[in-house]
Write a structure and sequence with these properties.
By secondary structure, the chain is an alpha/beta fold. It is built from eight helices and ten strands. 35% of the residues lie in helices and 26% in strands. The protein has a six-stranded mixed sheet, with helices on both faces. Strand 9 and strand 10 (226-227) form a beta hairpin.
Length: 235
């Protein structure tokens, strides 16, 4: 009896290396990372400061280019994409949630959420789609509030609404609960997990918090720019 083929990884990284140059000094941030993330997976990336977590996230998010190695996104070799193609990928295929929210201070909540739609040139029903995204994160009553009129948890909800308004297949969250208290942080994580459960959104979450990582399906541990093996973790 034949069996169904396994799903192809939506994120496929092979021997990824990144070296930064500070004057004449070479600083290796990634030393040869290989990683597969499959559609609908929830993966946590953990490691101490300087381990390469954010560098890896920037590579996966097409925000930076590796020094060497290969990255395939949905089977497409990212290094072959032109700058305008990369912009489309970042706008439509990947949603970003950052620790510092990155909201425009003079824009209200719904105007912040509308930004990806404006950049994509797809302004069809922009206001209605943005309102729907804010409603999904529980902020239907705060759409005209500016960031300084919102709590940290509410600002992060706006950031999540902005990340999902284009209905991306992947959400990359870099320390999304890092600036929040425990209760607000759990509420934000619950929102992300709900997106996965209801829409099959692939989640990659960078976190220092083992309680957050414990609620994901798999944890990848980085140290000194390398992924640790099970033997290294248990040593």
């Amino acid at each position: 009896m034949s069996t169904a083929p396994e799903a192809e990884p939506v994120i496929k990284v092979r021997n990824l290396k990144k070296i930064y140059h500070i004057g004449e000094i070479e600083v290796p941030a990634l030393r040869g990372v290989s990683l597969d993330v499959f559609p609908g997976e929830i993966v946590a990336i953990m490691g101490p400061s300087g381990s390469g977590k954010s560098t890896l996230m920037n590579m996966i998010g097409c925000l930076d280019s590796p020094t060497s190695g290969e990255y395939y996104l949905d089977g497409q070799l990212v290094s072959e994409l032109r700058d305008d193609d990369l912009a489309v990928v970042r706008n439509k295929k990947i949603g970003f949630v950052f620790q510092k929210y990155n909201l425009l201070p003079r824009a209200n909540a719904i105007e912040n959420v509308e930004l990806p739609l404006r950049y994509s040139g797809d302004a069809t029903d922009m206001r209605a789609r943005s309102l729907e995204a804010l409603t999904r994160v529980g902020l239907a009553e705060r759409v005209f509030h500016k960031p300084n009129e919102l709590s940290g948890g509410q600002q992060q909800r706006v950031a999540i609404a902005r990340a999902i308004v284009n209905e991306p297949a992947i959400i990359l969250a870099d320390e999304p609960t890092g600036n929040l208290d425990t209760k607000s942080g759990q509420e934000i994580l619950d929102l992300l997990l709900e997106l996965n459960a209801h829409q099959g959104t692939t989640l990659v979450i960078v976190t220092h918090d083992p309680d957050i990582a414990a609620q994901t399906q798999r944890t990848v541990h980085l140290r000194d720019g390398l992924i640790l093996s099970e033997e290294e973790l248990s040593a």
